[in-house]
Design brief:
This protein is mainly β. Helices cover 3% and strands 26% of the residues. Bound molecules: zinc ion.
Length: 185
């Protein structure tokens, strides 16, 4: 154990940074640290101890670890729908609207399909996993694109002879893909 003294360093929960950070001890009462200064934001505040040692049972709100922060690709992991929704804020899930813009991992509420989890975003389409099915719905039709639409050109799979009739694309889910409005390009 390092001897703690005023002017020394200690890890503490910064009330501003909301993180466990190195702090400089400003004041002590006997062996107890009472006041610290955050080395990161420079703010003075009462010593709180490191996260997990707090006396307040509030630490449950630790941020959920964000998996795969680099590539937003939907991994095909076989876990149950309930597991996928575990820890998600279902209560405040917004109602699905094609005008809203969704992002991967977001929970939304669909009037027909119920609670769904966004598993992929492809331009103006979102893949949603519902309890019984996976749907592709439109989004971001509100006119305020927050994301540059990732352009995915239609994959031409049929490289076969030309006498084959063109396979028709599967019909969009009703209600989901509103009649395709010209998207103004
Ligand atoms: Zn701080």
């Amino acid at each position: 154990m390092a001897t703690l003294k005023v002017g020394g360093e200690v890890d503490a929960q910064c009330t501003r940074c909301k993180m466990n950070l190195a702090h400089t001890i400003l004041a002590m009462v006997g062996p107890k640290i009472v006041r610290v200064r955050c080395n990161t934001c420079g703010g003075d505040h009462a010593f709180r101890g490191a996260a997990g040692v707090t006396d307040r049972p509030k630490a449950a709100s630790t941020r959920a670890p964000r998996a795969a922060s680099g590539t937003p690709r939907a991994e095909k992991v076989v876990i149950s729908f309930d597991e996928q929704l575990a820890g998600k804020d279902i209560a405040s899930a917004p109602k699905y609207s094609p005008k809203d813009t969704y992002k991967v991992d977001q929970v939304i509420h669909h009037p027909t399909f119920g609670v769904g989890l966004v598993t992929a975003v492809r331009g103006d389409k979102v893949d949603l996993t519902f309890r019984s099915d996976t749907k592709t719905l439109v989004h971001g039709r509100g006119g305020v694109p927050t994301d540059r639409p990732a352009f995915s050109p239609p994959t031409t799979r049929q490289a076969g002879p030309a006498d084959k009739p063109m396979a028709e694309p599967p019909p969009e889910e009703e209600g989901a893909a509103e009649t395709s409005l010209p998207s103004g390009d």
